[in-house]
Amino acid sequence: MILLFTHAFLALIRPRPALWVALWWACLSPAAWAYTLTCDVQGSFPELEKITIEPATVKVDITSIGDHLYIRMDGPKLYTFFVNTLRTPEFEGMDLTSKTSMWVKRKNLQTQEESEVKINREPVNIKAIKDVQRYGKKLKFFVTGPCQLPPG
């Protein structure tokens, strides 16, 4: 009886090739990655040519988790952006990435405000647009500038 129990137990824990391949693939597949850029940007309101915005240096964090992209631009208040490709009852995200650029749009379904961030690959630069309430109007805020890749 002990001999049969031992053999049955070994059969349960015996490594199976398909299981090992699945575990190896799961451990080595890039399910999530992150990248950070530093960009020197200039913002503007095209509708208001007389208004000048101070340039800024911003940090751009790009994260991919599963099939979704997340781009966060951190800087002074106007230069802070967040876009992603998630679709929820409140927001609709779109991934417009191509061979030449990484491009994500996000729309608030309740307010209809949109924001988008496009990062060109060669040369590395950023273009971003978002809807903001300023000066009693709903305006488009444009951001452009070159980016530096992290060392390494």
Task: Tell me about this structure.
It is a single chain. The protein has one domain (31-148): Lipocalin (Beta Barrel), CATH 2.40.128. Strands 4-3-2-1-9-8-7-6-5 form a 9-stranded antiparallel beta sheet, with no helix packed on it. With 152 residues, the chain is an alpha+beta fold. It has helices spanning 2-13, 17-28; strands at 32-44, 56-65, 68-74, 81-84, 91-95, 101-108, 114-120, 125-134, 137-148. Mean pLDDT is 84; it is low at 9-13 and 15-29.
Topology at a glance:
Layout: H1 2-13, H2 17-28, E1 32-44, E2 56-65, E3 68-74, E4 81-84, E5 91-95, E6 101-108, E7 114-120, E8 125-134, E9 137-148
Antiparallel strand pairs: 1-2, 1-9, 2-3, 3-4, 5-6, 6-7, 7-8, 8-9
What is the total number of structural domains? 1
What is the overall number of helices? 2
Class by SSE composition:
alpha+beta
Fraction in helix? 10-25%
How many runs of DSSP E, i.e. beta strands? 9
Strand content: over 45%
The name of the CATH architecture is Beta Barrel
Biggest pleated-sheet summary: 9 strands, antiparallel
- Contiguous low-pLDDT stretches (5 residues minimum) are 9-13, 15-29
Radius of gyration: 23 Å
Mean pLDDT over the full residue set: 84
| Span of the ends, CA to CA | 62 Å
- H/E series, N to C? HHEEEEEEEEE
Q: State the shape.
A: globular
- Read across the widest sheet, the strand sequence of neighbours is 4-3-2-1-9-8-7-6-5
CATH class: Mainly Beta
The CATH topology label is Lipocalin
